Each structure stands twice: as structure tokens, then as C-alpha cells.
Amino acid sequence: MVAVGRIANTGTTTGLVTPRGSTRVPAPLWRGLDHGPALVVLVPSASRPRELPAAWQPVAQRFQIAWCAVPTADPEARLDRVEDVLETLADRNTRTQVVAHTALTAVACRVVAEFPGIVRGLVLVGSGREPGPTGVRVRRVPAADPGDLSSPALVREIHAAVERADAAAGARLRLAGVAVPGPTGEIALGRVRLDLARG
To answer: This protein's superkingdom (predicted)?
Structure first.
């Protein structure tokens, strides 16, 4: 796999060559927090924006955001970059939610299944069939034009869905009588670490 590493909070990534075929898969655009909960945004596109859309700036104040353009021609064969992003987040044990355009539902479900230890939820943008079992809570944000993930109204809906998922995970922890400090939803008990924020 191609290694993709984040350099500070500049959004710069390394690893610009794709190992499969001649089609270049764009490097992810990293923005937002350096640490803390993350959103992996999957967009059907052959290119990524130079900057995070303006409507996403408030979301970037609460989350790390990895904006991943996934080419629509055979998207499941071109997941190296997305997998590298999730491997980086898994190495940091980062609570993550995947936000995906409905055209990439199969891709999103595959990624969620590969990283059950960190992915807490899936938000699908647009109408379509419900996915099969994913192991995480799936939320759907209806959209007249799901192809434009830069619409302020749509981003507010996505952000609300993500926040509801986080709140639901917190409520499950409160019901269990466990106080969990920090944004990762984990506590350490001696040498045993418990991941309690499965959502």
C-alpha cells in the first residue's frame, strides 16, 4: 500500500503514486484538528479540492477531516488511499465516522467492515437502498443534490447526524454508569484499556 502521512496541519500528504494501473488517485485532503475525533469523507470524484469547502470550516473546528476523492470508474479497486487514511487513524486509535456520498455506499461499507475498531458510524448522503449489516449505526442525510457536499444546508445536516451519533454513544456509556474522559471515549484501568464508545 502507498503510505499517506500527515504533515502537521498543512494538509500536505506524501505518497503520490498509486500502485494500481495508470489512473492516479488523488491524495486525501487533511484539515481540521491535529488530534481528536475524525471524519473520513468519501466523495465520488477524480480530483479533490485544493481547500476544504467553506461550509465545512465549522466542522473542522471539532474534527480531523480526511476528504477522500474516490474515482467513480471501479471505485472499489482504488481504495488504497482511503485504507491508508483509516490505517493512520487506527494507529492513533482515533474515534472515526465515515461520511459517504450514496454512490459510494458499497465502498463505505467495505471500509467500515475493514476497520471495526475505530469506525463508530456511517453517514450516507443522498437517497438509495439501505446497506446490509455494517456493524455500526448507519444514518442517512437526504439531499436533493448529494453530488454537492459543499452546500451549507447539507453540511449542517451531515454535522447534526455526526453529532447525534456521538451523543448516542455517550448516552450508552452513561447508561452503563461509566464516566469516560476525553474525546476518544476510552478509559485506562491499570494495564487494561477498554474501548467503550462503540456506536
So the answer is: Bacteria
